[in-house]
């Protein structure tokens, strides 16, 4: 049997941390994929998934800090991560540029996340061998 070629994944996360398992499951998958020699091409946050990029998330000390876990993983593996701009704006998450644009007093999207449109998601999916969705579902 021939050796299997390494896959290149785009991950789409639509569920918020603490109200769905989507970010946790996606992180477990991403860690396993990288360990197995695969590549995560991009992580795209959509819908409630954009809450994962908040710099203001402050879970109790006895809970896992999923936003911090994701930031560490993305930084360690130099994986680009994008928030859907429309989803972020609807939920009060802004980068510095959008905060200025809308005359808001502060930004709250943590690095390494960038805001972008669905065109960036489309480009990432075309550059990947697989796109996986981690949906929030209903709580």
UniProtKB/TrEMBL annotation:
<dbReference type="InterPro" id="IPR027396">
    <property type="entry name" value="DsrEFH-like"/>
</dbReference>
<keyword id="KW-0808">Transferase</keyword>
<protein>
    <submittedName>
        <fullName>Sulfurtransferase complex subunit TusD</fullName>
    </submittedName>
</protein>
<dbReference type="InterPro" id="IPR017463">
    <property type="entry name" value="Sulphur_relay_TusD/DsrE"/>
</dbReference>
<dbReference type="InterPro" id="IPR003787">
    <property type="entry name" value="Sulphur_relay_DsrE/F-like"/>
</dbReference>
<comment type="similarity">
    <text>Belongs to the DsrE/TusD family.</text>
</comment>
<keyword id="KW-0963">Cytoplasm</keyword>
<dbReference type="Pfam" id="PF02635">
    <property type="entry name" value="DsrE"/>
</dbReference>
């Amino acid at each position: 049997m021939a050796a299997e070629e390494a896959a290149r994944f785009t991950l789409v996360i639509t569920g918020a941390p603490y109200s769905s398992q989507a970010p946790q499951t996606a992180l477990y998958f991403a860690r396993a994929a990288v360990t197995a020699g695969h590549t995560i091409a991009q992580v795209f946050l959509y819908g409630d998934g954009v809450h994962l990029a908040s710099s203001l998330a402050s879970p109790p000390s006895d809970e896992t800090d999923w936003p911090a876990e994701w930031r560490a993983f993305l930084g360690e593996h130099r994986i680009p991560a994008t928030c859907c701009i429309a989803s972020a704006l609807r939920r009060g998450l802004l980068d510095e540029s959008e905060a200025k644009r809308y005359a808001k007093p502060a930004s709250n999207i943590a690095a390494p996340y960038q805001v972008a449109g669905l065109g960036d998601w489309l480009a990432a999916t075309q550059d990947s061998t697989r796109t996986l969705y981690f949906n929030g579902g209903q709580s």
